[in-house]
From TrEMBL:
It comes from Micrurus carvalhoi. Keywords: DNA-binding, Nucleus. One of its GO terms (cellular component) is nucleus. PANTHER family: FORKHEAD BOX P, ISOFORM C (PTHR45796), FORKHEAD BOX PROTEIN P1 (PTHR45796:SF3). Residues 72-120 form the Fork-head domain. It is found in: Nucleus. The lineage of its organism: Eukaryota, Metazoa, Chordata, Craniata, Vertebrata. This is Fork-head domain-containing protein. Residues 11-25 have a biased composition (Low complexity).
């Protein structure tokens, strides 16, 4: 119908780039104590604050249990990844080495690979 707008009758806006309305200001590239004064208190995990590995007591204490029982361990992926890296001689691991550590240390991860690999 004549009352409907066709693509040819719609107004066209230019496609050339224009300057931003508000200039972008470059903030500090490094976070420093001075740049964080407005952030507020930061909470850290005890293990992060004091660089205490989680497995010293938690994983090692129940190591045989986790290796054999298909029970999901009560640790975050981040803490498990951290522990795997801390246990490696070079203190660095490839993603595949992290996967291998997960499956070597926990029976749960041997059976349920599809559910956890993307999260890691």
């Amino acid at each position: 119908t004549a009352s409907e707008a066709s693509p040819q009758s719609l107004p066209h806006t230019p496609t050339t780039p224009t300057a931003p309305i508000t200039p972008v200001t470059q903030g500090p590239s490094v976070i420093t104590t001075a740049s964080m004064h407005n952030v507020g208190p930061i909470r850290r995990r005890y293990s992060d604050k004091y660089n205490v590995p989680i497995s010293s007591a938690d994983i090692a204490q129940n190591q045989e249990f986790y290796k054999n029982a298909e029970v999901r361990p009560p640790f975050t992926y981040a803490s498990l990844i951290r522990q795997a890296i801390l246990e490696s001689p070079e203190k660095q691991l490839t993603l595949n080495e992290i996967y291998n550590w997960f499956t070597r240390m926990f029976a749960y991860f041997r059976r349920n690979a599809a559910t956890w690999k993307n999260a890691v």
